[in-house]
Structure formats: structure tokens, C-alpha cells
Recover the amino acids of this structure.
């Protein structure tokens, strides 16, 4: 005699969406931006020197050039000029040079979490943005840490610095189209921001002249590990 199996028409589980919502979202590796403040007495003197440089070299193509994406943005002592000049070699930047090195070492040690005894500022330049100017999103290759110091900045008139959420990609991978996530930081004058160089940043809709900042790139002098090496700047 053949046995017949009774087939149930009820579903094996109840369709419910309440149990598929996360109880909480855990952010494991957030983007960490370091913020430092230059002492007031040094900040005022540095601002005076930067205004002198932007007036003196405005039409000197050996030391300045306009950003191709924005005719309202001029760079001074930019590495793209190819003459190996650095803003930090200009008289009056000694204190600032020492300070951004100390800040960079602190950021690498205590925020990134890596051993670092000394750093090399590989490039350093001034950005002078007029009303209507912008800087497209970009990152800095061949660098570990990048920074921007705000020399002349009026909140709600000068454009804040915008960061975009970095995407971690590997090969192979599938990429889903989605909305880009941005975050603005509106600093005060005399603020230095430091971040890891792969993070994209920029700004748009600058509403006032003389948005002046100093940008630079940083590498640890020694990269410690079994395959580590020491950098020497020429």
C-alpha cells in the first residue's frame, strides 16, 4: 500500500519585515579629520605674509598659476609649476613649518594610529579664491596625510571645505549606483584640518573674495615595517 504525504499549503515562515531592521548600525572605521588651531600672535603675522605673497606674485607665472577648472582660483608655489619651490622656504614661515610638522606627527600617531617620529612636508602652496570660484573634488596622490590651513576665512561668506565619503573598493567588485554623501566643515580663521590623502575634498559657490588657505602634503620620514624605508627630501 502506498503512503501519501500530506503537503501543507502554509508558508514555512511568516513574511514580516519587522525582524529585518537592524537593531543598531555599527560604524567601524569612520573618516577622522584632525582640527588644530594656530596661536593668535603667529596667525596674524602669517596672514600678513600671505597677503604680501598674493599681491607680489599675482602675475608672476614662475610662482603662480590659475586653476584650469576655475579662473577665480589662483595657486602660489604650487608643485604643478615644476620649479621645486615650496612656500615653506619663503622667509617668515619657519614657525608655521615647525607647527604643521608637530600637528602632522600628532595626527599620524594618535588619530591614524601609526608610529611616527618625524615627517617631511613634500609640497606646500597658497590658494587664493575670488568670489564665484570653486575647487572640484579631488585627492592627493603619493601622499599619506594632506592638510589645509585657513589663512583668511569669513564664515557664511567663504565656501566651507567639502569632503566626500570614501568608497573602499577591491578587485573584482560590483558597484551599485547611489547618492554621493558629502559633509561640510566650516572652519574658523587660523584652523588647520588634517586628513588621509585618499579622501576627496573641494568646495563650491565661494561668495567672497580673498578666501586664502595653505595646503600641503605630508609623508613620514621613516616608514617602519619589515619592508620599510627612509625618505630624504632633495
Amino acid at each position: 500500500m502506498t503512503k501519501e504525504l500530506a503537503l501543507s499549503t502554509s508558508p514555512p515562515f511568516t513574511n514580516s519585515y519587522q525582524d529585518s531592521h537592524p537593531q543598531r548600525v555599527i560604524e567601524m572605521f569612520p573618516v577622522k579629520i584632525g582640527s588644530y588651531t594656530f596661536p593668535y600672535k603667529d596667525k596674524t603675522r602669517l596672514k600678513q605674509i600671505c597677503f604680501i605673497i598674493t599681491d607680489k606674485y599675482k602675475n608672476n607665472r614662475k610662482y603662480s598659476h590659475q586653476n584650469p577648472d576655475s579662473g577665480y582660483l589662483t595657486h602660489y608655489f604650487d608643485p604643478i609649476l615644476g620649479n621645486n619651490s615650496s612656500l615653506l622656504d619663503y622667509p617668515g614661515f619657519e614657525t608655521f613649518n615647525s607647527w604643521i610638522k608637530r600637528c602632522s606627527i600628532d595626527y599620524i600617531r594618535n588619530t591614524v594610529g601609526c608610529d611616527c617620529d618625524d615627517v617631511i612636508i613634500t609640497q606646500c602652496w597658497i590658494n587664493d579664491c575670488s568670489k564665484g570660484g570653486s575647487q572640484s573634488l579631488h585627492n592627493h596622490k603619493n601622499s599619506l596625510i594632506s592638510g589645509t590651513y585657513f589663512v583668511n576665512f569669513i564664515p557664511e561668506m567663504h565656501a566651507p571645505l567639502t569632503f566626500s565619503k570614501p568608497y573602499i573598493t577591491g578587485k573584482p567588485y560590483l558597484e551599485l549606483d547611489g547618492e554621493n554623501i558629502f559633509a561640510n566643515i566650516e572652519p574658523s580663521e587660523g584652523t588647520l584640518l588634517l586628513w588621509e590623502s585618499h579622501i576627496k575634498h573641494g568646495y563650491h559657490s565661494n561668495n567672497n573674495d580673498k578666501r586664502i588657505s595653505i595646503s600641503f602634503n605630508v609623508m613620514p620620514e621613516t616608514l617602519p615595517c619589515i619592508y620599510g624605508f627612509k625618505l630624504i627630501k632633495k
